[in-house]
Amino acid sequence: MKKLVLTGAAGRLGSYLREPLSMMADELVSTDIAEGIGTLYPGERYVQADLADLNAMSEVIEGADMVVHFGAIGDEAPFEEILGPNIVGAYNVWEAAHRHGVRRVVYASSIHAVGMYPRQERIGTDVPHRPDTVYGLAKCFAEDLARMYWEKRGVEAVCLRILSCAQVTGARALGTWLSYGDLIQLVARAIDTPTTGFTVVYGVSDNDRCPVDNSAARYLGYAPKDNAEQFAAQILAAEGPGDPRDPAQMCHGGPFAAVDLGQSGQAQMNIVHDRKET
Q1: For the chain (length 278 residues), average pLDDT per consecutive 10?
Q2: CA 20 to 30 Å from 25, out of 219, 249, 250, 267?
Q3: Residues with catalytic function
Q4: For residue 95, what are the domain limits?
């Protein structure tokens, strides 16, 4: 590819994607609202831009072959805060992609688009939306937007329903963990698969306790390597018995299924913010 665009480049996941993506195109344009993202990789250029500004996104995306869209508020928040970056921002990315003839958008969706399903129900990529938060609702909007832009305007999309891409610090993550190495592989397969149309795939490693089914997206060639079971003995010894009355333990969305709308889900989680520094 000549040009690849990465939104959300200043975020934790974006920090791990920048280097491998810079090797997949002549030019990687990384973008975020932050003033900077540290030392740039060879072939990488940084542009500060607001997802909620269509003109700004159009300028960033012009000439791109594909867009890897990871930019957004990454937690539950009031609708008014989610609206700009997560909903309007998604529209702006796809509309700019259409206007400039971009072939495909690879989108960081989330398990929270279907977070109210019971964890004991192993769900596939074709289940109807069942969001657990306003944040999850915005992911549903973007997935439906992606399908519409494929069916009406021919812009391909791969929506990555990421489960837990962070260090394993609790029992839920024994099933939901996505290692950074598997994240990179997943995004690479979403980019280099010859044709995708509209596709949903779960972002999860090869965990023994994986609660979702990716068989319908097997054609992408995503073959995760890591398994959270290596952490099981330590994690389970540190936690007490489960509570079947707790939605955080009984739903796919974890703590997001238990918090009130507009209240942070991440505040209930022990996330290690191990951003890759350059």
Answers
A1: 97 98 98 96 98 98 98 98 98 98 98 97 97 98 98 98 96 97 98 98 98 97 98 92 93 98 94 90
A2: 219
A3: 135
A4: 3-268
